[in-house]
Amino acid sequence: MSSAYEEVPLSELLDQLEHDGAVVGFTAGLLAGLVRPGDIGTGQEALREALPWVSFLPDDDAEAFLRELVDVTREATASDDLAPVAVLLAQWHHTAEVYADPALHALIIHEPEGDFGATPLPETTE
Hints:
Elements: H1 10-34, H2 41-50, H3 59-79, H4 83-100, H5 102-109
InterPro entries: DUF6247
């Protein structure tokens, strides 16, 4: 029986990373091909299919997300660091969650009324 944590030779891990990078590079190119100036609708449809929560975003935000996703994915592929893509996806997902909840959205977009007074200085320890 094999373990989920079995030892894998470093060369196999490096090969897998190279293959993963090729797939991500292809995906970035495919996304870029879907996002044509003046015709971003196809890209937005594909994005909504892949990430259903995008449908909660207003159209302008969905377009901004798609363009940012293409740019960040290209940059991440070039630098072999996919972490920025994961961060971007999480940030936009949280934005969609705010739009999906009318009460939360109202809390966030409205300025608080009144003055909350002076902010006390932090205590110092010397």
